[in-house]
Specification:
The structure is a single chain. This protein has 252 residues and is α/β, with parallel strands linked by helices. It has a single domain, classed as NAD(P)-binding Rossmann-like Domain (Rossmann fold), CATH 3.40.50. The chain contains ten helices and eight strands. An eight-stranded mixed beta sheet has the order 3-2-1-4-5-6-7-8, with helices on both faces. The protein is globular, with a radius of gyration of 18 Å.
Length: 252
């Protein structure tokens, strides 16, 4: 039976005060297993807050090493982490933040061949990757396994946040919003640049959405666009797209 120790009750006392969380909600967070794809600009704040919030098990997937140019925005890492595998360095930082949770680190690139194994048993997946091909792999596997997906993106001064609850048969998917295009151009921080605090905003919102889904406060099917210069935010409710190549939506 899952329960909170005395130390956990003290650690999460500010959650326990909230009627939206309370003891029941904190136990849900402790029982959850969240897979985070990408431990970079978006993954850094997302992982920090998921660990701090008390997600019982976190799995980190990333095959990159820490570089000096990462430190402008990837707040998990310090100068002494340069040259290390990101997941190894991230795992140490997160363990020092919360040593009462389980942290799995996988230094590998997600692919169609290993996605099922990586996501098996997960409560939810948070996609913090920076390219279309990985996002489609994440979307397809979450759809197949019926796992909720929180996806984020940030480029230049614009951020995007998406949530799909594949436990619901009528949930739209990433492909409904961004259909595959021939020779789809990949824009990312490396070739376009990004305002660093924007990644903190979107990554933190990904963690917040993930926590809300685990607690049962969010149903998915939402798209948010955020402008880092004006601080304007637009929200849209998503529906299945007819003929979606990813979820093969059928509209009556």
């Amino acid at each position: 039976m899952v329960e909170l120790s005395d130390k956990e009750q003290l650690r999460y006392s500010r959650h326990l005060m909230l009627k939206e969380v309370g003891l029941e909600g904190q136990l849900k967070l402790k029982a959850a297993h969240i897979v985070v794809v990408g431990a970079g600009g978006l993954g850094s704040p997302a992982l920090l807050y998921l660990a701090a919030a008390g997600i019982g098990e976190l799995t980190l997937l990333d095959d990159d090493k820490v570089e000096l140019s990462n430190l402008q925005r990837q707040v998990l890492y310090k100068v002494n982490h340069l040259g290390q595998n990101k997941v190894s360095a991230a795992g140490k930082v997160l363990s020092s933040l919360n040593n009462q949770i389980k942290i799995n680190t996988v230094s590998a690139k997600l692919s169609a061949d290993n996605a099922q194994q990586m996501f098996s048993g997960a409560t939810l997946v948070v996609d913090c990757s920076d390219n279309f091909s990985t996002r489609y792999v994440v979307n397809k596997q979450c759809l197949a396994l019926g796992i909720p997906l929180v996806s984020g993106a940030a480029i230049a001064s614009e951020g995007q946040l998406m949530c799909f609850d594949f436990r619901q048969p009528q949930s739209p998917c990433y492909g409904c919003l961004f259909g595959k295009q021939p020779q789809q151009q990949t824009l990312n921080c490396s070739n376009t640049g990004v305002l660093s605090p924007l990644l903190g905003v979107i990554g933190s919102m990904q963690a917040l959405l993930a926590v809300n889904i685990v607690l049962g406060h969010h149903q998915g099917g939402q798209f948010i666009r955020f402008d880092a210069l004006s601080l304007a935010q637009q929200q849209f409710q998503l529906t299945k797209a007819p003929g979606c190549s990813e979820c093969d939506a059928e509209i009556d």
